[in-house]
Amino acid sequence: MTKISNNDAWTNIFDDLKILDKITIDSYFDISADEIKRRDGKEARLMTKIDHREHLPTVMQENGLSILAIQNGLYRIARTDPFINIEKEPQCHVKIIQQPTNGIITLDPLNIQSESAALDIANISNILDDVFGEKTLLTIRGRLRGELSFSLNSIPYDINGVQIEVDGGYEGAKSVNLIEAKLGYRGNINIRQLLYPELFWKNQLRGRRKEVKSFIFYYQDDIFRFIPFKYDGNIITASHEEEKAFAFSRVSTFQLSNIEQPTRLLVNDEIPFPQADDFEKIHAIFLNIQNEECPQKVNIIGNFDIELVERQYDYYFNVLRWMNLCTVWNGCIALTEQGKYLLSLNIEKRMEEFTRIIFSETICYKVLKGLPQNEADFARYHISGSTIKRRLSTIRSWIKYFNNFFEKKLF
């Protein structure tokens, strides 16, 4: 069977099963994993892993539809929007705290490379006590299966046997606090990752007089963001007015403007010139590569709010290849020695190395220093005309990003 994209596979499924007609009559359509695989030979778990709005297949996007698991191997398609929007920047004052002084040496608060490490640092630094409003202990972590029910846009969802995962659950005298953790920012998140665990544990703890609360946790560069998730039986929101954010004290002496004329090129100019404005997301993707056994582009990008189109996610991976931080080996994305070295550095030193690599490129250096560029500078990248303007926009956005990072007064 010829391989086709998930997008085309869903279009075929909708056409074959006349799903739109049936949703018009019944308000929703249930489809099994076997039915999905029978149509185009694709695994249902890959076809239905839609963590962000950008991952919805075109046929669902165009018709205001979504898909959620209701049983192990059974999914409901309906006109609902199960995604919560999250603001890019903290919507509160970032509280500066001191690094932990309790003798812990196996976790570096300024070199966090996984979601679990970020949560553990937040725990031992008493950040979580501040967020939860009481002392807590880690009591829940990992995957389980359970039952729960809710409705969206008057569509019922009776969940039975679906896998539920909690990155961290912390119990105190008055509350049980569930966290969905992410390295890096996402503009939206599927409620499945928050609502399913919350309703499951509310059922489990019914009558126990402990409030069950849920939080979206983003570790964005060096900022710990905790955003309460709210569901009142009808409206689902990220409660930014109750958000809390923290960062460890650090003193930066590095200034981007002091970068000197490059003496040698540290980027790979055989890779396309960058076109990915969001360097924070590039950094987060870089961190996530090491957390997969055989990382592949589509699997890593599946964790981010980026359209699952090869041209789109190649923009991000090409930046890392251009910086000589990763390569592709036997179908897997592998960190280079330079990539591994940068991961060993604390976040401030890593950011400094990022800038030294980027601005070793003549074009980038000229933009940084406000010097004129010409088409000859871009000749070796085989780009010209209006394309040049888009590439320069990327570099200008990076300059703004790095200046913001180094100019933060975190002390």
Structure, described:
The protein has 411 residues and is of the alpha+beta class. It has helices at 6-17, 19-26, 33-40, 44-47, 58-62, 115-124, 127-132, 192-204, 279-289, 297-301, 310-322, 337-343, 347-358, 362-369, 386-407, and strands spanning 28-32, 66-71, 74-78, 83-85, 94-97, 136-152, 155-172, 175-183, 188-190, 211-220, 223-231, 236-238, 244-248, 326-329, 332-335. The strands form four sheets. Strands 5, 6, 7, 8, 10, 11, 12 and 13 form an eight-stranded mixed beta sheet that branches. A three-stranded antiparallel beta sheet has the order 1-3-2. The chain has a two-stranded antiparallel sheet with strand order 4-9. The chain is globular and about 65 Å long. The N and C termini lie far apart (60 Å). The mean pLDDT is 91.
Oligomer: single chain
**Which spans have pLDDT < 50 for at least 5 consecutive residues?**
none
Strand content: 25-35%
Helix content: 25-40%
- Counted by DSSP, the helix tally is 15
Distance between the termini: 60 Å
The structure class reads alpha+beta
Mean pLDDT: 91
Largest sheet: 8 strands, mixed
Rounded to the nearest angstrom, the radius of gyration is: 23 Å
- Taken in chain order, the helices and strands follow as HHEHHHEEEEHHEEEEHEEEEHHHEEHHHH
Instruction: Provide the number of structural domains.
Output: 3
Number of strands: 15
The gross shape turns out to be globular
